[in-house]
């Protein structure tokens, strides 16, 4: 009997989130993962804004005249409206990365519904327009895309990561991965919050080297250029 219950729980988990996530990541052609833009790349950041790191990152982007797209955690955005407004004022674009960065595997229908409702309420109260959504960890469940569509949000993933969130990543390994993996049409996913201790510091430091190199080869575009 116990083995039957365990098998049933596993089956439910697979059907609820694992299989939808696998399909979403690898087979769903409607999900944006790369761009068909000649000589262009997109730089995106997840998990912020973070008062410890995001302003320093914005300083660096301004110095290099690079525009990026920020997938915001709505609760953090609510606590740091000045940073979000600075992003917009300096020509960066914003999108949604959930309300509190919960994994879809552990959220039910009502949690998903509240997550989107609370997120969009914050965006509307601050007059922040968002058209794109990236789920935390790139994971979804059977309700995620339903509520994204209901709120007029287009799902977007990425084609390049540098594991900048990992405690095993150094400034040098982040630099090497970016320079090796980025190519025409890449959507780069980095992080300005969360991850291992001081991980965003290493990301910012790596970008000090990488941005000037990538600028010589590619044009940086934002979410606005996708429409």
TrEMBL record:
InterPro entries: Glyco_hydro/deAcase_b/a-brl (IPR011330), NODB_dom (IPR002509), Polysacc_deacetylase_ArnD (IPR050248). Residues 39-224 form the NodB homology domain. It comes from Clostridium ganghwense. SUPFAM superfamilies: Glycoside hydrolase/deacetylase. Transmembrane segments: none annotated. This is Polysaccharide deacetylase family protein. Coiled coil: none annotated.
């Amino acid at each position: 009997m116990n083995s039957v219950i365990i098998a049933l729980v596993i089956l439910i988990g697979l059907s609820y989130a694992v299989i939808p996530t696998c399909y979403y990541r690898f087979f769903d052609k409607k999900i944006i993962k790369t761009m068909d833009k000649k000589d262009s790349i997109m730089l995106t950041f997840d998990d912020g804004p973070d008062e410890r790191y995001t302003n320093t990152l914005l300083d660096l982007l301004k110095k290099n005249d690079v525009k990026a797209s920020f997938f915001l955690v709505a609760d953090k955005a609510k606590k740091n409206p000045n940073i979000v407004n600075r992003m917009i004022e300096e020509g960066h674009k914003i999108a949604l990365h959930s309300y509190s960065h919960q994994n879809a595997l552990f959220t039910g229908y009502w949690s998903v519904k509240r997550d989107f409702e609370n997120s969009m309420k914050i965006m509307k109260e601050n007059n922040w327009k968002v058209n794109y959504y990236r789920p935390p960890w790139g994971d979804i469940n059977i309700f995620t895309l339903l509520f994204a569509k209901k709120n007029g949000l287009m799902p977007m993933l990425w084609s390049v990561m540098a594991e900048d969130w990992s405690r095993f990543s150094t400034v040098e390994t982040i630099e090497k991965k970016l320079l090796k993996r980025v190519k025409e049409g890449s959507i780069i996913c980095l992080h300005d919050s969360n991850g291992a201790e001081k991980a965003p510091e290493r990301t910012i430091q790596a970008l000090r080297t990488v941005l000037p190199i990538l600028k010589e080869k590619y044009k940086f575009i934002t979410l606005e250029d996708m429409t």
